[in-house]
Design brief:
Helix content is about 75%, strand content about 0%.
């Protein structure tokens, strides 16, 4: 017997998440197709875009039209229908979402932000609150809520929800923002090691190399400098010195 979501009424967020995931999956599948299907897929995409848009237009659902055009990458029409949706009246959650996909969160009224904060106070909304914090650029708060919310779902054996939001966290850019914060903190402390590590995690290897070379004299003059000698040798491309530094580190158990 098949069990699942038949007859289940999805809430607004579930509908949006499902639709966005579906479109992403379809897009990925098409990207992997060979060129022989390109014309057929192009026609299918056009039919999809126009047919779905017409359904929403007939209903006067400007919010759905904005989401639709965002998903298919039509920024001009997305922005047109965002303005119409907001002009017609939206709740705080919708206004924040629509402005966030525009990357114009500064246009959200303060009253809408305060209203949404109030709506998300209850712990049961912690993952929605995580997304809200990410949308408005509060990356530390977003990371905390994502981690705690995902942990709660794992303890509740809600594995799909935990996996979904873990994926959302990984794709959100929050990890990179945290490494940037770590870089700033290390710079404020004048901590070369953690500056280098943060730059490496951000993939900024040229900046990391340049930073090490700028501190060459300090590294050579320091007493406890084996790790930095290794970094300096790598930055200079000196294989012999790098090997000597590695051997010295190995003797210390590192």
């Amino acid at each position: 017997m098949i069990r699942g979501g038949f007859g289940r009424k999805l809430d607004a967020e579930q509908i949006v998440l499902y639709r966005e995931d579906w479109y992403r999956s379809v897009s990925n599948a098409r990207a992997s197709d060979d060129d022989s299907h390109a014309e057929e897929e192009s026609l299918h995409d056009l039919t999809y875009a126009t047919t779905i848009a017409e359904i929403y237009r007939e209903k006067g659902d400007f919010e759905a039209l904005a989401r639709h055009y965002h998903l298919i990458g039509n920024v001009e029409l997305r922005d047109k229908y965002i303005e119409q949706a907001i002009a017609n009246g939206c709740d705080a959650e919708t206004v924040i979402y629509l402005r966030s996909i525009q990357k114009r969160i500064e246009l959200v009224p303060e009253s809408a932000l305060l209203e949404r904060i109030e709506e998300l106070k209850d712990k049961k909304w912690i993952l929605a609150r995580a997304r809200f914090h990410e949308q408005i650029g509060k990356h530390l708060e977003a990371a905390s809520d994502y981690v705690n919310g995902i942990s709660d779902r794992l303890q509740e054996h809600r594995y799909f929800t935990a996996a979904y939001y873990l994926k959302e966290l990984a794709e959100s850019g929050i990890v990179e923002r945290l490494f940037e914060k770590a870089l700033q903190d290390a710079d404020d402390r004048n901590d070369l090691w953690w500056q280098v590590r943060a730059l490496e995690e951000l993939g900024r290897y040229d900046d990391s190399r340049e930073l090490v070379l700028q501190h060459e004299e300090e590294i050579l003059m320091s007493e406890d400098n084996l790790l930095f000698r290794e970094l300096l040798a790598l930055a200079k491309g000196d294989r012999t010195e790098w090997l000597e530094a590695r051997k010295a580190l190995a003797r210390t158990g590192n």
